Amino acid sequence: MTPIRVILADDHPLVTEGVRAYLETFDQIDVVATVTNGPDALAAIERLKPDVTLMDLNMPGMNGLTATERALETSPQARIVILSMHDNPEYITTALRHGARGYLLKDIPTDEIVEAIEKVHAGEVYLCTGTEKMITGSSDDGEDGREPLTSREQMVLLRLAKGDSNKQVAGELNISVRTVETHRKNIKRKLGIATTAGLTRYVLESGLLGLER
Question: Which domain holds residue 191?
């Protein structure tokens, strides 16, 4: 079996060293890098293309949520699990909306970290023990039953609804045209809307215009 390639992103050396030492006792897991800040996490994900990244919520340079969202723009296949001390349901749902595939509290038993890595690698969403019940009914769908858009997807949607081309959106948001196309595909899938006219109507009816800066 090919080992699951993992990146650890956390600015606390005791955390990364401890987790790495534990994970390296498992033949099915290969820790390919440890980084201590958001920008280095982005670079490592793009360069190494790990199967799973464990991302600290609070890091210098760029927090884990922003790093997760930006990583998914350049590496849509990335599977990221947020590490946090916060068990507030708002933190958990926000992490999932930014594209995280899991949420782990730092005080969980270490064997649960391995379970999370394996399940996220297999395509599942993993919430550690004690957090899933907190957000039952709110983690997967929005109020209308649709999968919620990330903040960057909302920004792309607003510009598409205004009639901007993919190239124009890419220029305004400083991302590639290919990334815009990926966002556009995900937006249509999440909302179940196939046409630009339908997207425009959704923006008008949902009140998203109020989010524009």
Answer: 151-207
Using a 10 angstrom Cβ sphere, with 0-12 exposed, 13-18 middle and 19 or more buried, the burial of residue 36 is middle
Alpha-carbon gap, residue 128 to 112, rounded angstroms: 7
Query: CA 152 to CA 158: how far, in whole Å?
Result: 10
Phi, psi of 80 (to 5 degrees): -120, 135
Please indicate, yes or no, whether residues 124 and 163 belong to a single structural domain of this protein: no
Residues 14, 90: one domain?
yes
**Does residue 82 lie within any of the structural domains?**
yes
- Collapse the DSSP code of 50 into the 3-class scheme (helix H, G, I; strand E, B; otherwise coil) and give the result: coil
Q: Residue 72: inside a domain, yes or no?
A: yes
The 10 Å CB-count burial string (b at 16+, else e) for 93-126 is: bbbbbbbbbbbbbbebeeeebbebbbbbbeeebb
- Check pLDDT > 90 for residue 47: yes
How many domains does one find in the chain?
2
Task: Give CA–CA dist 57/96, Å, rounded.
Answer: 12
* Amino acid at residue number 35: V
Q: Mean of the pLDDT values across residues 158-171?
A: 87
Average of per-residue pLDDT across 100-122: 91
